[in-house]
TrEMBL record:
Keywords: NADP, Oxidoreductase. PANTHER family: 2,5-DIKETO-D-GLUCONIC ACID REDUCTASE, NADP-DEPENDENT OXIDOREDUCTASE DOMAIN-CONTAINING PROTEIN. PROSITE patterns: ALDOKETO_REDUCTASE_2 (PS00062). This is Aldo/keto reductase. The lineage of its organism: Bacteria, Pseudomonadati, Pseudomonadota, Alphaproteobacteria, Hyphomicrobiales. It comes from the Bacteria. Belongs to the aldo/keto reductase family. Residues 12-257 form the NADP-dependent oxidoreductase domain. Transmembrane segments: none annotated.
């Protein structure tokens, strides 16, 4: 694997494929791998695992050089459903094992008990279908319960919304205290960071964009980041952000951009920690 910064065994800079259509996911993965990125993030719910696989194949990068993350969608949390769904994901991805497998959401409205689907998730891990496991969008209470239920198995990461305008300190501080890495999704606040005056000013002296400074901030915080784009230039630009080192004073200024701008807050979400 390319020598990149790692967080809990995960390459710190990844390429996210949320909201990428079949062709966008396929082409985006090729461009990301060509740029040197070696961490690709997908999910059952994105409907593009097979397109991610096509991108990896067409980029002609060896499997052992690529870190693949996918996620089990809540529709597949029913009795006996988790393992078959993961096997289907592996088939679509063209691999025997993913590097990281996440539970995408807590079961909406508690349709399925956590103990039931987490127990199935543990079986998938024990069967060797994933090298590491983690969760996404889990709250403090759910993290605590998951740790108890998983026993000696380690939760590698909690993937949560995190960007300069919603730094999500309650759950992030809690995960850090427990030694669980944070993976920041929507790290560019779905484009809202573009042109931010503070980020622009900090970037100007470095010849960097506001987007790159926003990513550099999350990297400085020790988070894994998975920005997404369908544009080749932007994919390359995002990946280059990992080379930027911010000063403590700059980090403090960016911390001041916090405004609680949560982008993901549907009725399927758990009650977020505040």
């Amino acid at each position: 694997m390319t020598q990149e910064a790692m967080v809990a065994g995960i390459p710190q800079m990844g390429y996210g494929t949320w909201n990428r259509s079949a062709d966008e996911a396929h082409q985006g993965v090729i461009w990301a791998l060509e740029a040197g990125c070696r961490h690709i993030d997908t999910a059952q719910g994105y409907g593009n695992e097979q397109d991610v696989a096509r991108g990896i194949k067409d980029a002609a990068v060896a499997r052992n050089e690529i870190f693949i993350t996918t996620k089990v969608k809540p529709d597949n949390y029913g009795p006996g459903a988790v393992m078959p769904s993961v096997r289907e994901s592996l088939e679509k991805l063209g691999v025997d094992q993913v590097d990281l497998l996440l539970l995408h959401w807590p079961s909406p409205h508690n349709k399925y008990p956590l103990a039931d689907y987490l127990g199935q998730f543990a079986e998938v891990f024990d069967a060797g279908l994933a090298r590491q496991i983690g969760v996404s969008n889990f709250t403090k209470a759910l993290i605590d319960e998951s740790i108890r239920l998983l026993g000696s198995r380690t939760i590698t990461t909690n993937q949560v919304e995190c960007h300069v305008y919603m730094q999500n300190r309650p759950i992030i501080d809690y995960c850090e205290k427990l030694g669980i890495a944070v993976t920041a999704y929507s790290p560019l606040a779905r484009g809202a960071v573009v042109g931010d005056p503070v980020l622009e000013e900090i970037g100007k002296a470095r010849g960097a964009t506001s987007d790159q400074i926003a990513l550099a901030f999350l990297i400085a915080k020790g988070h894994v980041v998975i920005p997404s784009s369908s544009k080749r230039g932007r994919i390359i630009q995002n990946f280059e952000a990992r080379k930027i080192t911010l000063t403590p004073a700059e980090i403090k200024r960016i911390e001041g951009l916090e405004k609680g701008m949560r982008l993901v807050n549907g009725d399927w979400c758990p009650v977020w920690d505040v």
